[in-house]
Amino acid sequence: MESNTVLKFPNVSKDYISDLKYISEISTVIVSSWDGTLSLYKIIPVSGSYKISLDKQFNVGFSILSCCYSREGIYIGGVQGELTFLDFQAQVFQPIEDNKATSGIIRIIPYYNNFIVGSWDGTLQVIDHVDHSIKLVKIIENAKILTMDSSDEHLVVSTTGNKIKLYKLPLNDMNDGSLIDSVLKYQIRDIKILPDGSGYVIGSIDGRVAVEYFNDPSKQFAFRCHRKKLTDVQFVFPVNSLLFRPNSNTLFTGGADGCVSCWSLTDRRKVRQFNKIDEKSVVKMAGGDRVLFVATSDDSFKTNAIITDDIELQPSSIYLVVLDN
């Protein structure tokens, strides 16, 4: 177990944290939550530590699933397929015209001067950053998009049915991608492309992580993580979030056990086990060279047989973990 300096964010939305983005060039963390709150925090180095302050907070008016920073503002995706843009200069929300999504906008990711949007109904859309118009719409038939990531050359989309949809970028009308089976048996929670673009990493609900390569399947491997072994039973926790340390082959995994682990994919071994963050699940992570941001939320409702309006969840939290080396 490794002890690092941990700072707690102030004024965090109590509801489930749906997205977490660190924008290093403006020293800002963007946080979205299911209660429709979009919060911007300033992260300022002070005397060897950091000062965290709530800079701005907006109520979007719908439950938020995803957000993505642009120099002019922030794209926001909602649980009912809402897609809007927060214009920093005008301080107004602009709904994206011709948005075709009919259910949750689960991920918005930048691609050069455009943004790629994926939703639960299997819709992929490309937004032009200049006029915020929809440039392209593609449909993944009979599938729900769970998560996705992109590099300069590839878009990797995880869907229901334990499938992975691979696209060469840029997307166009003739590019239908290729559909492959995931090497993991259970539902994927997160996916990240390797820093060198040679493959991708997936984490699943059965406490496993797999590393796959685009051009050399023989190099692929998988490992177990986020498990607790007692005398006669082993508890397995979902891997909810994956994050690479910038410009490295160092992978952070965040689990429903409230823990963050650090792995060297080069050496194929665990290099750090951080102290448990809190009693809730790690649901999102973001970070830079010296800082790791960890959002925890109560996701116990995911295993409830029946979800009712009066269910009481523990309030969410966000932490800054100072990385010593």
User: What's the number of helices?
Assistant: 0
Give me the count of strands: 30
Major sheet strand order:
1-30-29-28
The value of Rg in angstroms is: 19 Å
Q: Please report the distance between the alpha carbons of the first and last residues.
A: 15 Å
Low-confidence stretches: none
SSE string, helices as H and strands as E: EEEEEEEEEEEEEEEEEEEEEEEEEEEEEE
Question: Structural class, from secondary structure content?
Answer: mainly beta
Strand content: over 45%
Helicity range:
under 10%
User: Major sheet, described briefly?
Assistant: 4 strands, antiparallel
Q: On the 0-100 scale, what is the average pLDDT?
A: 93
Overall outline: globular
Annotate the secondary structure layout.
Blueprint: E1 6-8, E2 17-23, E3 28-33, E4 37-46, E5 49-59, E6 64-70, E7 73-78, E8 83-87, E9 92-95, E10 105-111, E11 114-119, E12 123-128, E13 134-139, E14 145-150, E15 154-159, E16 163-168, E17 178-181, E18 188-193, E19 199-204, E20 208-213, E21 221-224, E22 227-229, E23 234-236, E24 239-244, E25 250-255, E26 260-264, E27 269-273, E28 281-287, E29 291-297, E30 317-322
Antiparallel strand pairs: 1-30, 2-3, 3-4, 4-5, 6-7, 7-8, 8-9, 10-11, 11-12, 12-13, 14-15, 15-16, 16-17, 18-19, 19-20, 20-21, 22-23, 24-25, 25-26, 26-27, 28-29, 29-30
